[in-house]
Structures are given as C-alpha cells and as structure tokens.
Amino acid sequence: MTAEIMDAAKAGMEKALSNLNEAFANVRTGRANPMVLDKIRVDYYGVPTPINQMAAVKSPDAHMLVVEPWDKSVLRGIEAAILASDLGITPSNDGSVIRLPFPALTEERRKEMVKQCRGYAEEARVAVRNQRRDANTKIERAKKDAELPEDEARRAEEQVQKLTDKYIAEVDAMLKKKEADVMEI
Questions:
Q1: How many domains does the chain have?
Q2: Strand, coil or helix: 88
Q3: Residue 26 pLDDT more than 90?
Q4: What is the mean pLDDT of the chain?
Q5: Vertex 147: Cα angle to 142 and 149 (nearest 5)
Q6: What is the mean pLDDT of the segment spanning 121-150?
Q7: Segment 37-43 mean pLDDT
C-alpha cells in the first residue's frame, strides 16, 4: 500500500522536475540555443508544425542560429512565426536560410530572466508539494479505513517528507545553475 503511494508521489515529483527542465530550456541565455524555437509553430499546409520538424536548426557560433527549411516555400512562414513570437529576435531572411542573431543580453534583461526562472522554480516547488499533499491524503485515508496501522502511516508520512525535501533541493540546485547560466556574460 505505502509503496504504491510513494511510487505515485515520486512519479509526480519527477514530472515536476521534467517540466522545470523544459521551462528552463526555453529561457534564453546569452548563447544561441536551438531549443528556444521548440515552442514556435508555423502553419505548414494548414497544420501548426514545430520549426525543428520542418527545418534544420544549426548554431554556427555562440550568438547565431541558422534555420534552413527543407521546403523553401515555408521560409516566409517561419520568419513570420519567429517575428510573432516573444523571442525578441529579428530574423534575417536571405532567400534560402533564416539567420537569428542573438545579441548579448543587457544586465536588466538578465535580471528579468532570472526572475522568470525563479517563477518557474516556484511552480515546480508547488507541484512537488502538491504531490506530497496527495500522498499524505492517501495515507490518511488508508489509516482511517484501517488498511494501514498508525505507526506505519507515520513512517510513510516521514518518507514522503524526505522525498519532498529531496526534490525541493533538486529544484533549488537546478535554479541556482540556471541563474548562474543567465547571469554569465
């Protein structure tokens, strides 16, 4: 009984970390990262399609991304989608590829991004705590229904708390690493 509850809580907490990792990947640092284009969709024959499924995205240097579509007819659509996104980058279209120059971030913009990262980390902490609450609720219910002895229920709650502390520490470590990444010049 407690093993199932712990497994469910652990799976939920892992998902929270995975979501945080995804959110951090989409935060722009001073370097060009092809993952910033993952959420941008382009209308490709009536279907919203991610850029990485319709073009090769390369990073020739730390401050440039090159998008080379396999079908040159979607070049304008990709350019329009990038302009419409919240990336804050102006694409340069030369007829065969799109170049995305990533300017060096200002101190103010870096601080904004750190603030954004802290928000993502807090969302992850809340998700982890929600998993703890759900697990503790299941343990209480099992104790109330006499499926679980009281001392075993208490041990299970302690295990859930240790698991929660472990994942909160992981979230904090990920945030610290991302903050250092963003503030690095």
A1: 2
A2: coil
A3: no
A4: 87
A5: 90
A6: 91
A7: 85
d(CA 34, CA 52): 9
In whole angstroms, what is the distance from residue 105 CA to residue 180 CA? 14
How do 98-101 and 64-69 pair as beta strands? antiparallel
Q: Is there a single domain that holds both residue 82 and residue 148?
A: no
Using the predicted structure, report yes or no on whether residue 127 has a pLDDT greater than 90: yes
Convert the pLDDT of each residue in 149-165 to its tens digit: 888 889 999 999 999 99
Q: Is 56 left (phi over 0), alpha (psi -120 to 50) or beta?
A: beta
Kindly report the CATH number assigned to the domain that includes residue 14: 1.10.132.20
The b-or-e profile of 140-150 (16+ CB within 10 A means b, else e) is eebbeeeebee
Q: Are residues 110 and 176 in the same domain?
A: yes
Radius of gyration in angstroms for the set of CA atoms belonging to the chain, rounded to a whole number: 22
| Beta-sheet strands, E only, within 45-150 | 47-50, 55-61, 64-69, 92-93, 98-101
Domain that holds residue 160: 2-26+106-183
In this prediction, residues 21-37 reach a mean pLDDT of: 78
